[in-house]
Amino acid sequence: MPDLADLYPGFASHTAATEAGRIFARVGGSGPPLVLQHGFPETGAMWHRLAPDLARRFTLVIPDLRGYGWSSAPASRDGAGYTKRVMGADIVALMADLGHARFRFAGHDRGARVGYRLALDQPGRIERLALIDVVPTVAVWKAREADPETSPHWPWLARPEPEPERAIAADPDGYFQGLMAKWAGDGDLAAFAPEALAHYRAAWGDPSRIHAMCEDYRAGATLDVEADRADAAAGRTIGCPMLMLASRSYLVKPGGPTPAEQWNALAPGAEVVELAGGHFLAEEKPAETLAALLAFL
Questions:
Q1: AB hydrolase-1 domain location, by residue (predicted)?
Q2: Closest-CA residue to 111 (of 21, 23, 188, 179)
Q3: pLDDT tens digits, the chain, 297 residues: what are they?
Q4: Rounded Cα–Cα distance for residues 182 and 176 (Å)
Q5: Domain 12-296 of CATH type 3.40.50.1820
Q6: Calpha distance 106→136 (Å, rounded)
Q7: Which of 82, 284, 80 is nearest to 183 (CA)?
Q8: What's the burial of 206, exposed, middle or buried (CB within 10 Å: 0-12/13-18/19+)?
Q9: ∠ CA(202), CA(208), CA(212), 5° rounding?
């Protein structure tokens, strides 16, 4: 990694050894433990605007998912090494290394999928679960059946290796920044701090991490959706209190099922709050996102 701005001054760097390699995290603050988990195609740097205020109330643990940022990118084929189940196990190992058996969890995008999978797989680990701008994986594929234009990056990133890896590697900044601008409420990158963008570029320029992100989506097309279906068939639901923050410019689709309806099978009774803005609420609308998280957590 090149020299990058420290977006978490005063926070410690912590690395936990797992069966897949190292999981890197920033740790700081005081109070009950709270995991802040980033999404695609970012790193733990995405929480930098919320962390100072959250750290006054919580001990923050801000990991990079396996395959992202400064964490290890283990070898994998067909998504097996990047299911949300194994990513959730990474977080359990990291938190155990820090002395925490139970914790609060807030996740965005892929990180939110890790959080809800962990809440289903290991009930009791997560005390309160906040998800930012996702619906269940099974709901994404159902929406695609109704409208193939929904989330076109999902099937493309999940195509067999090495097709998407080679295409992205030809211009990773162009590909990932294009997605981020498309998903942001204003249609550009103005909401993102240049220092945070530098962290993202440094990570996604690495071929091993491009492969890891594709494996993440290959898991989402197969093993992750199968896990959702198995839970629904067995009647398993998320037992802890859950908040879902939905962006009006990205997730909420006029005329389509509401986020609450899409979550009903796995998280009946979940609280859903809609916020103005695009997909990257923690960076686009930090004050509103912070207020909603503090009120819930």
A1: 32-286
A2: 23
A3: 568 999 999 999 999 999 889 999 999 999 999 999 999 999 999 999 999 999 999 999 999 999 999 999 999 999 999 999 999 999 999 999 999 999 999 999 999 999 999 999 999 999 999 999 999 999 999 999 988 888 999 999 999 999 999 999 999 999 999 999 999 999 999 999 999 999 999 999 999 999 999 999 999 999 999 999 999 999 999 999 999 999 999 999 888 899 999 999 999 989 999 999 999 999 999 999 999 999 999
A4: 10
A5: yes
A6: 15
A7: 284
A8: middle
A9: 100
**Contact between 131 and 282 (Cβ < 8 Å):** no
Domain ranges of the chain: 12-296
Residue 186 bears catalytic tag: no
Q: Cα–Cα distance between 100 and 173 in angstroms, integer?
A: 37
Residue-wise DSSP of the chain: ------SSTTPEEEEEEETTEEEEEEEEE-SSEEEEE--TT--GGGGTTTHHHHTTTSEEEEEPPTTSTTS-----STTGGG-HHHHHHHHHHHHHHTT-SSEEEEEETHHHHHHHHHHHHSTTSEEEEEEES---HHHHHHHHHH-TTSSTHHHHHTSSTTHHHHHHHTSHHHHHHHHHHHHSTTSSSTTS-HHHHHHHHHHHTSHHHHHHHHHHHHHHHTHHHHHHHHHHHHT----S-EEEEEETTTT--TTS--HHHHHTTTSTT-EEEEESS-S-HHHHSHHHHHHHHHHH-
Catalytic residue among 64, 90, 108, 109: 109
Given 38, 108, 211, 279, the catalytic residue: 279
Q: Tokens standing for 270?
A: 């979940």
Task: Establish whether 109 is a catalytic residue.
Answer: yes
